Every structure is written in C-alpha cells, then in structure tokens.
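Input:
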Amino acid sequence: MASTDGDRRPKYQRIADTLREAIQAGEYVPGDRLPGENDLMNAHRVARMTARQALGVLQSEGIAESRKGAGVFVRAFRPLRRRGIQRLSQQQWGSGRSIWSADTENRDLVVDQVQVTEEAAPEHIGAVLDLEEEGTVCVRRRRFVLDGKPVLLATSYLPMGIVAGSAITEENTGPGGTYARLADLGFKPVHFREEIRSRMPSKDEARQLGITAGTPVILICRTAFADEGRPVEINEMTLDAASYILEYDFDA
Amino acid sequence: MASTDGDRRPKYQRIADTLREAIQAGEYVPGDRLPGENDLMNAHRVARMTARQALGVLQSEGIAESRKGAGVFVRAFRPLRRRGIQRLSQQQWGSGRSIWSADTENRDLVVDQVQVTEEAAPEHIGAVLDLEEEGTVCVRRRRFVLDGKPVLLATSYLPMGIVAGSAITEENTGPGGTYARLADLGFKPVHFREEIRSRMPSKDEARQLGITAGTPVILICRTAFADEGRPVEINEMTLDAASYILEYDFDA
DNA sequence: GAGTGGTCTAGACCACTAT
DNA sequence: TAGTGGTCTAGACCACTCA
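Output:
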C-alpha cells in the first residue's frame, strides 16, 4: 500500500499535479468540470483549504477557471491571430478598409465601446508626441469584443493641433479609419513602432476584459510616424493574452 | 469612527488595496520589505490566512514577491529591450557579430547552458520544416542569463539534412552564428516570422527561469525562411516577461 | 534563536448557480 | 433548495533566513 507515501512535496501540489496530468491526458477536455473542493476533500482526505489551494494552482497556471457557485472548469485557448505588419500596410487602410477588420479571420471582432475626448496629454505621451504649447490630445478609447467577450482595450492619442476639426475627433472616423484621415491631413503614417510587454492585469484591466485569475495581459504600445520622423499617434493597447497570438513577418 | 465601515469588499482585498496604494504612492520602493503576515494580523485584526491572502493578491499581480523566511518585497521591473527586426538585419549577422549581442544594451546577457543534440523532430516542428524522409533535426538548447538571473530559454530546430557536418552542430557556431553558417551552406535566411503569445509558466519553465508567482512568460516562435520560402530554422523561445520589452519597427 | 513565510486542520457562514 | 466556490477564524507545526 502506498497510502503512507514518502513524498515530501506539499499535499496541495500533489493534488494539483494529479489533476494537471489528468487534463493533459485528455481525461478532462476544455469546458469540462473538474472535481470540486468537496470531491477533493473526500478523495484525498484533506481540509477544505488544502483542496482549495490545489485548485488555485491550476487557476493561477491558466489551466482552469472557477465559476462561482458552479464549479471549476478546464479552460480553452482559442486565440485570434494579429498580423502586426501586414495589417498596417498601405493597401489595408489606403483602400477604405478599417485596419481592425484584418484581425478577425472571419470571427466576430467588433467595437463595443467608443469614447472620444480632448484631454491634457499624460506626461509619457506628451514626451513623445511633438505638441505645440498648450498641447492637448485627442483621446480615442475603444473596447473590442469577440464572440461577446471583451478581448482588447485600445487608447489612442493624437495631437489636437493636427486632428482638430477632422473626423478623427468623431466616434466614426470614416472609411480607412484614423490613418486614412491623417493622410488626408498631410500626416500620412509611413513608419510604425510597436513595443510589447506582458504582465498580470491590474484589477481594473481584469474587470474591463473579464479576465480570470491566471491570465496575463499583453501590452502593445504603437507609435505611428509621419514624414521626417514626426510622431502623430500613440496607441496603447491591452490584450487578453488568452485571446491573442501576435505575428510579425519581415525580411532580413 | 470608521472602524465599523460598511465596505462590502472582502477584507483581504481591502488590505491588498491599502498596500498597493502605499506602493504606488512611493511609500515602498522596489526592494523594500512590506509588512508581513504578523504585522497585517495585528494592524487589521484578522487571521493569518486573511493577511496571507492579501499578500497573495500582490504577488499574483506581480507587484510583490516573497522570499521564504525573509519577508515579502516590492518587485522591480527593469527589462531588456529586444529589437525584433533590426537585430536580424543583414548587417548584424553578415558582419561576424552574433545576433544576441544586440540584445544587451551594455548589460551582461550571456549564454549559461548549451546543449546540441540530434533528435527526431517533434510533430509540430516536422510539420513546418521540409524534412526529407527519416528526417531528424539538430536541436540547439540554450539558456541566457542576465546579471546572474536566467531570462531566456531558446530551443532551435534545424533540418539535419541541411546542417549535418557544419558548425551548427557544434556548441560554438563561429562568427555570425547559426544564420551566417546557414548562408555558408546556401540557405541564407531572407525572411522571418515571429509569433508571440503569453501565458503563465509551467512548473518546469518557472524553475528554469527562476520565476516567482505573478510573472507570465512570453513565448516567441521564430521561423526563418531561405529562398523560395523554404523554412530552415524554427526557434522557440521562452522569456521571463518581467525581463523583456519587445520592439518591432517597420514601414507602412 | 527570533522572526518569517509555507503548509495544514476543522470548523463556520455567505453568495451564487443550477435545477 | 441543494451544491458550489468565496471568505474567514483560530489555532498548529515546519523550514528557512538573518542577525
């Protein structure tokens, strides 16, 4: 009998390992309900907090997610593919298409919330955009929803000195979107820089994206440059990491 | 007196919020020790598990990290900048420099472990690389260390049919690295694709990278293509997300 | 050796979900 | 309404760190 085993790892880790292996072996598939706290207490003769800790391990690994009052379930991973470079090529926004449509791959990514305001530039924004004195910025905040689930928050900053009076200050920027309007204004973006990092979400980000424990966010900060290296837009994006794969294609 | 407040948020959340605000207000700076479990029990009149939960919130957010027997400390974030496109331009590896050296920005990023083997190709690798029948791959596994801390695991797969007998199968690939050797062999990489995602680390990844709770990993899968779109290398990288900012610069 | 975080027990009450 | 996860208490012992 191996019941009095000499394993020196914590009980909750052993329980978590058992469940993880069962998931990886296909005994539970995405969407399945895992044994609950009560099940684990009985099966492994442990206290509630210990069973709870075991389930917490899987949640913090992003393998499982709990639904209050219902149970703990195996998570699915079905991401979007976001092509970082092709999506910003001339053909895309030069020909009347909104750049975001390239994201969807026939899935239903739509704008959920839009808010356009004029604000004083945050310090880190003003330091990059060349603002005239009294420089305010046009701030476009949008949330994107995929299949009913929020997956992307985007906040775009543009110098008011450039975009005042244009459709960029409207909720609907018209065919080709913001970049086509910038081109109309003589500030056609010709170069982009995207900076990417990842971390755990703040409470506010988790709320807005409906993120469960164990899921990081990806942050993309894109700067668009017009001729002569003039920065004309900064777009700060927050992505649910479980919903995205980013792709960059380029030549040597 | 506000001691019997009507706040309906969990105690541990309120305690965590208090600490988080103190950190953001600069009362604690990176490296500082936060109040411990005992301190919080006394200060907020709660049980150990509740104080513990509060500290757990900050750790899972990546704001703090615990050191056994020592305390809970505010974390620092001092990332490397990895330039995804410039680093692979001709000048870099065409002129005798190892591409990784562009990563460092005067910081000390060095290879810590190298392992070169010949193996049967994993299924997802063989499906992308054009392997001859009996196709094995040269597998180069490396770990990179920054200031004594591991930050990057890289596993590179190359078709044995191409690289057999070359310096690519040695630990030291010579000036210009793997890509210069591929060029010598007539398979100069001319196009790259990098796919990026992020998730929480597996236990093994966390161990190899020395990752603490609350830190995701970034996964980069790079495919290098020679002429006629022939894939000649797949490099799967696992990055400590707290150590990296990725950058992609490109024209419209 | 004093203090710290890590694990664990055995209870309890609550809000929520599903039926 | 029965079952679920979420929160919380009041203890306990351990391994570890640091002075």
